[in-house]
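Supplementary Note 3. Input sequence used for the single-chain structure prediction.
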Amino acid sequence: METTEEEIDIKKYLYISLRFWYVAAILLVCALSTAFIINSNSLNVYKTEASILIQDQSTQINNIIEQNILGNTSDAAYNQASILNSKNLTYKTLKKLGLYVSYYSDENIKFNEILQNPPFTIEADLTHNQYCNVLFRIEIVDDSTYRFTCKKQPAILYNYETYEYSTIDLIDAIDTVIKCGAVFRNKNFKFKIVKNCFQTAPENTFYFKFNTLNSLVSDKFKIAVTTDKESNILQLSIKSTNNRQSIQYLNTLLNDFIMKDVDKQNYAADNTINLIETQISQIFDSLDYSETELQQFKKEESILSYDFQSQSVYMKYEALQKEKAALLIKIKYCDYLEDYLKNNKDYSKLVSPNSMDINNPTLITLINELTEAYSEKSDMEFNSIKMTPFMAKKIETIEKCTKLLVENITSLRNSTHIAINEIEKEEKKLNNQITKLPETGRKLIGYERKFSLNNELYTFLLKRHSEMKILKASNMPIHEIVDYASPDTVTLIAPRKMLNYAIALLIALGIFVVFLFLFSFFNNKITNDDIVEKMSSKPILGHILNNKQESYTFVSADNNNPVIESLRSLRTNFMFLSSVKETGNICIITSSFMNEGKSFICSNLAHSFSLNNKKTCIVGFDLRKPKIQEFIQKNSSELGVSNFCRIIFRIQKFHDIPFQRI
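The predicted structure, written as discrete structure tokens, is reproduced below.
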């Protein structure tokens, strides 16, 4: 069985397209007008970019800790990218820049906030609850007076310290005058208006509103961070309608980020300095007392120096005291660390052993890991209230580090006590030598020994105190900003005007194509020869053009009208198709609707045959509205087909005459 695939008739659709060209023009104008309106009324959206180099400061960790605690460590760049998107850092930046307040002018209140600096600044007290997401009207009366108005409406009270919504309250209508720099206060307001000296505006009416920090982070200042697989450079980008504000925000955020490590280092240095100063204050009294005793003894006994034998014993004592002083510092640090772990849960303030000149790699690694894990846990708790697997892992790391620290402290204290016992044994040997010295020498060495121990401790602490001061002053950021955000890094990403116009053209074209398809699908009229050929096996003899003249019959031998030519062509094709018989040929002209030209074609075709010396008879079978008589110019009152049929019926019925003989 043969099957033929239905082909698309391009000529057909091209003809329909040309026929309905005005539809395409209307769609094109509407689409381009819509694109123009969208481009004109859409806010410009800018993309601001910056980049930062992340230095990997991770240290090698003891194998025991690596197996029991950490497992696989995460990539440094990935961790820093999470910190850059943390709410803690974002809120800090927003507060510093004061971006929790949006300003509007009377013209663009429905669209966007003022892109440039407003003529005044709202300085809010963030320790006080504020009404958020409510427009307040400010009218500039003069250089030092403002009129503050607000309608009665529901509003949200927001706490900028806890970042939480307090209540939903109904704000009362307000209409008052505020002096520049004066604090405006009521039960749920506390702010002041400060004039920007270098900003002027032609209008005198403005609006402002307080934004919640949550909405600013999610809607306006959401940063996209992408990492480079081949390096530790992070690319930061932010999309905003205010490119100037985005540049300011992004640069401040990056500065806060790189200074975060410096702040941590300074914080640790301050804790160490405070601990050292506490120890110095405790030792200073003992040192002062022992020094007074020594000077008093020398004064009473009139002794200025040792003899040779006493000098030798004293030098040995002095060396032992230095060693003992360093060990006592270790004991004091162990006591401090053990007491801190028992009584505090904030491990961010732990003092590193390095600051106390204690070189114990395991202890240093454990403390660094504990403080880092606690810091990451604190950031995650701030950003999310849910217990995530990563947070659970950090909690487990803190617990294991704390347990290992306690064990390490105990081990360090025991080893230190053993070393102190050895020193004390050496001191006993020296005491036996001292007993052989003169009484005055023995007493002098006793006073000197007490003074030397306190002096060594005091000197050591002063040295470490100075070193920590120098270290704090030399702290530098770990990470480095590669490219700051600037106008050169800003690109316009919306609206894409040419793309909008192209989309509008495609939409118009698509709608026009759908229109053509629907028109072709629902069109049941015969529009070309192919449709007739598919419906019938008979050939098409010709096409008759539409008659626009008022005359009915106009076929003549010398007339070259296109309509007449089409009738002659039809006559010729009919003569070639039919064979002439003795009885002649019969042709029926019919259609399914009225006023389609049956009578016109019949009369003119018959007239055409008669002009060709053919005997022609016309019979009109239109029983309701016959028009043949109008074409052949006969009286319409004569008998018609219906009368003839009625006569035939009577003859058959009453005379039984066969129909064929009539």
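Residues 550 and 600 are 12 Å apart (CA to CA). Residues 243-301 form the longest helix (59 residues).
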